[in-house]
Design goal:
The complex is a heterodimer of chains A (274) and B (340).
Chain A lengths: L7 E10 L4 E7 L12 E6 L3 E6 L10 E6 L3 H7 L6 E8 L12 E7 L3 H13 L7 E7 L11 H5 L4 E7 L11 E2 L2 H7 L7 E6 L2 H14 L7 E4 L15 E2 L2 E2 L6 E3 H5 L6
Parallel strand pairs in A: 7-8, 7-11, 8-9, 9-10, 11-12
Antiparallel strand pairs in A: 1-2, 1-6, 2-5, 3-4, 3-6, 12-15, 13-14
Chain B lengths: L3 E6 H13 L3 E8 L2 E6 L25 E10 L2 E6 L11 E6 L1 H13 L7 H8 L1 E6 L25 E6 L2 E6 L2 H9 L5 E3 L16 H10 L4 H6 L8 H5 L6 E7 L3 E8 L20 H20 L9 H4 L7 H11 L1
Parallel strand pairs in B: 2-6, 6-7, 7-8
Antiparallel strand pairs in B: 1-9, 1-10, 2-3, 4-5, 4-12, 8-9, 11-12
Helix pairs in contact in B: 5-8, 5-10
The chains are: A alpha/beta (274), B alpha+beta (340).
């Protein structure tokens, strides 16, 4: 008899302080990563402080660890924030559906991430970059409110250095510093300036709802992406992650089981409940 | 197993219940407490209140307790000791019997079983459900809040009961639906007399006042309808509808204790609370009470039936009887059906 709510203990291998209030934590179970797919998520907790839901941010092909990024904001994340390398973190998962990379093979891909929404994008993006030859041109657009809010700064160079890969980073107007070399402008605005065409292309978009709304409009109306070829993830409050606790549904769709990955076409048929 | 039919006199029914108590069954029945009637453990037949239509609460808590230990933990230094709550489920006792419940409450078990078993299996629920024997008594006089007939059951439905008793003069007919019920009857076989289906009085012709399929077809097309925002302006979001509901199963998971010892628990939760869906960012998909009551209606009459081919409602009417704002779900479901 299996207790589906029982977590496993993972060991913290590495903690990366991304910004003042966000960290990336790399974990292992039995000294290695777990089997998961990009887009999936898990329940993470410091036992005693309660569980939180996070998507994986690492490529599943990197077998030495699995990672997630989080912003410290409540009781559970404050607990996790207080942990050190070598400490234990409770984990259960992976749950949910995933980005189907087989449908992306041979195509040009644009990855669009806003704020901490870059975390799930990073997982699928690095998965593609790890098998770079399977895909066409790759464009990465990443934006945050301010320079100080950008995650993954230490690996920007790594992303850029892949062949036939363009990396564009932007901050919201007013969020730039005097020595800022990237773009200034909201993600949908900068997206519009990129030489992208919907033909034989896939767009992966994650970020705050308002960014998604305008980015989708740009991709569809100005660049000719079909709704089937725009993929995003939904985040709703979850507790069980197993389709039982009853809160993450959008209409008849359970984000934890039917999602979190949806195409713009699928989103179109959902009621305004997210 | 095919249904089997027995007769039992009122006098023997008392002996049957007292016999189970004597044989260390945990017998749970409607019983009076603090001026009201609740399901609770009885120690003799007389403690059961079989006159009342429905106890205040359903017996959901015997399948899904208000608080359940998922695991207990103790942490010292680098060692974390986790004790799996499944190893010691309070109340998952083969000798637990619900006696004198109603067909609506009995219907809730097999309906909830579906959500607890699609894909991932919730063994907490399964262990309790598997070990519970349900002996229901058919209703003779449903009240105005009742609408089990509209919900594909009836005051005489045996769905979900291991034994359904139908009163007839000073005796009862016992309809035994499966092995669990039959085992009990066999154990007390001197109190029961086997009979045939044709001897059991036919069910009355219970009339429906609306078609639930029409309610669903309204919900299918009218997510944005003004009705929800207007009708539920009066809702104060107390959540009593969900707590007293036999099929509402939404739950929360919380840690209780400190960083050295404590437990992770699963608690009843309610879709009627704003915090239920509140995101960390402050965004909330369901802002108004109209949004939240609509979710409850959608879950019961549309979403659940699409996923599991059963409506998530047995028509017991408790949510209406207990609502401080007198929101009558039967009226609401009827209104929606009329607007379809």
């Amino acid at each position: 008899m299996e207790n589906i709510y029982l977590p496993k203990l993972a060991e913290i291998k590495e903690i990366i302080q991304e910004t003042a209030d966000t960290k990336t934590i790399r974990l292992t179970i039995d000294g290695k990563s777990i089997d998961f797919l990009p887009g999936q998520f898990g329940e993470f907790s410091l036992i005693g402080e309660g569980e939180s839901t996070f998507g994986f941010s690492s490529s599943p092909l990197r077998k030495e660890y699995f990672e997630f990024s989080f912003r410290t904001s409540g009781r559970a994340t404050t607990g996790i924030n207080g942990l050190n390398e070598g400490d234990k973190l409770a984990f259960r998962g992976p749950y949910g559906n995933y980005f189907d990379t087989s449908k992306m093979h041979g195509k040009d891909i644009v990855f669009v991430g806003g704020g901490i929404g870059m975390a799930p994008v990073k997982s699928i993006m690095e998965y593609c970059l790890d098998e770079r030859d399977k895909y066409g041109k790759i464009t990465i657009l990443y934006g945050a409110r301010t320079v100080g809010d950008l995650l993954y700064k230490n690996i920007f160079e790594e992303w850029k250095n892949h062949k036939d890969t363009e990396f564009v980073v932007t901050v919201d107007p007013g969020g730039e510093t005097p020595d800022w070399k990237g773009k200034v402008g909201f993600v949908p605005t900068i997206l519009e300036q990129l030489p992208l065409k919907g033909e034989n292309s896939i767009a992966v978009v994650c970020g705050p709802p308002i960014m998604i709304k305008f980015a989708l409009k740009t991709l569809e109306e100005k660049m000719g992406f079909s709704k089937e070829n725009i993929i995003t993830t939904l985040e709703n409050r979850m507790k069980c992650g197993l389709g039982k606790c009853g809160r993450c549904n959008v209409g008849s769709v359970y984000v934890c089981k039917d999602g979190p990955v949806f195409t713009a076409k699928e989103l179109e048929s959902l009621p305004n409940d997210f | 197993m095919e249904e089997k039919y027995f007769e039992i006199s009122s006098e023997n029914l008392k002996k049957f219940v007292d016999g189970m108590v004597t044989d260390n069954y945990e017998v749970i029945a409607p019983t009076d407490k603090d001026g009201d009637t609740f399901y609770g453990k009885i120690s003799k037949f007389e403690e059961a209140n079989l006159d009342i239509l429905l106890p205040k609460m359903s017996y959901k808590e015997y399948l899904l307790p208000k608080t359940e230990t998922i695991f207990e933990y103790s942490i010292s230094g680098v060692d974390t000791d986790i004790k799996d709550g499944l190893q010691n489920i309070a109340g998952a006792n083969e000798k637990r019997v619900i006696f004198g419940g109603r067909p609506c409450d009995a219907g809730a078990g097999p309906i909830m079983e579906k959500v607890f078993n699609w894909d991932y299996k919730d063994e907490f629920f399964n262990e309790r459900f598997k070990n519970l024997t349900i002996i229901s008594i058919a209703c003779e006089k449903p009240d105005n809040y009742c609408f089990c007939t509209e919900m594909q059951l009836s005051p005489e439905s045996s769905y979900g009961s291991d034994i359904l008793l139908k009163k007839s003069g000073d005796k009862y007919f016992a309809i035994v639906t499966g092995e669990k019920g039959l085992n009990l009857v066999k154990k007390y076989s001197d109190l029961f007399t086997e009979t045939t289906k044709d001897k059991v009085p036919a069910d009355k012709d219970w009339k429906k006042i609306f078609e639930i399929e029409k309610t669903k077809s309204f919900l299918d097309k009218n997510f944005e309808h003004n009705y929800f925002q207007e009708r539920f302006l009066s809702c104060i979001g107390c959540g009593v509808c969900t707590y007293t509901c036999p099929t509402c199963h939404c739950f929360d998971i919380q840690d209780e204790g400190n960083l050295k010892e404590g437990r992770r628990i699963r608690n009843w939760d309610s879709c009627q609370f704003g915090i239920f869906t509140l995101h960390t960012s402050g965004h909330n998909p369901r802002v108004t009470q109209g949004d939240r009551y609509r979710q409850r209606l959608m879950h019961k009459f549309k979403i659940y039936s699409e996923k599991f081919d059963k409506y998530l409602c047995v028509g017991c009417g408790r949510c209406s009887r207990n609502c401080p704002e007198d929101i009558d779900i039967k009226e609401v479901a009827k209104n929606l059906a009329e607007m379809a």
